[in-house]
From TrEMBL:
Name of protein: Soluble lytic murein transglycosylase-like protein
Family: Belongs to the transglycosylase Slt family.
Domain Transglycosylase SLT, chain residue ranges per copy: 129-231
GO biological process: peptidoglycan metabolic process
Highest taxon above the source species: Bacteria
Keyword Chloroplast on entry: no
A GO cellular component entry from the record: membrane
Any one GO MF annotation of this record: peptidoglycan lytic transglycosylase activity
Any matching Pfam family: SLT
């Protein structure tokens, strides 16, 4: 009861995390109630998955496996991504057949689930992204979307044109915000801070018209101005705007699904 009450209380203070926690934990109940008896290996696998989700659910409510509260809550964007991307996509069901399935020749080796390196980097950088987004009055999920499309959140990335770091800044652009030297752009906080300042400037210049903001971020303000304040007819720029908007929409939908709940 202590943990349930803690999450019920936490639903007021941390509504996004507790909603996701109860969704994760309650997902197992109906399946187990209606399922037939399972063999030992299947039960062991389900138990491992349930334990992992239970631990994640407690962390979402601000508690560890022993029921102790951590020193500080995870930032919202980090928590949203961690919970939304935890489950792999379900495997497609095998087509129905009247013939009995042949017995397997051998028991396959267990598969270890690993997070993609890009997701691990995104989670690691999420606190910094939250901080710089707040400082520049930007949506952190927009910064995540740009970082994903630009570099997959990779601080070591270098483009063929010479853009560098997480947000793929050109040295000349970064110099406008006091960042000198190419090596400095591979420091993730420095890169993110300069990129956020540049993005905020573009937001003000184009009145929040996101397609123009992204086009200017990719092709430069001059290209947008030369084409009558429209997205330039460059295939690369048009594809870039489409990809960032798509990723941004996906992240916003994921975060919006973490709604507050009332536990009675």
């Amino acid at each position: 009861m202590r943990r349930r009450e803690a999450c019920a209380t936490g639903s007021v203070r941390y509504p996004f995390r507790c909603a996701a926690a109860w969704a994760a934990l309650s997902a197992f109940g109906p399946a187990f109630a209606a399922a037939p008896a399972l063999d030992a290996d299947t039960c062991a696998a389900l138990q491992g998955a349930a334990t992992a989700k239970y631990s994640l659910g407690l962390a979402a409510c601000g508690f560890d496996a022993a029921g102790a509260a951590p020193a500080a809550p995870l930032p919202r964007t980090r928590q949203a991504q961690q919970l939304q991307m935890y489950d792999p996509a379900p495997a497609p069901e095998a087509p129905a057949t009247s013939a009995p399935a042949p017995a397997p020749a051998a028991v396959p080796a267990p598969v270890t689930r690993r997070w993609p390196a890009s997701l691990a980097r995104a989670l690691q950088l999420a606190p910094v992204i939250d901080e710089v987004a707040l400082a520049e009055n930007l949506d952190p999920l927009l910064l995540h979307a740009i970082a994903h499309v630009e570099s997959r959140h990779d601080a070591a990335a270098v483009s063929h044109a010479g853009a560098r770091g997480v947000l793929q800044l050109m040295p000349g652009t970064a110099a406008r915000y006091g960042v000198q030297g190419r090596s400095a752009l591979h420091d993730a906080p420095t890169n993110l801070q300069a990129g956020a300042r540049h993005l905020a400037m573009l937001q003000r210049r184009y009145g929040g018209e996101l397609d123009l903001v992204l086009a200017a971020y990719n092709a430069g303000e001059g290209a947008v101005e030369r084409h009558g304040r429209r997205v330039p007819p460059y295939r690369e720029t048009q594809d870039y705007v489409r990809r960032v908007l798509g990723e941004y929409g996906r992240l916003r939908a994921a975060a919006a699904s973490l709604v507050p709940v009332t536990v009675r």
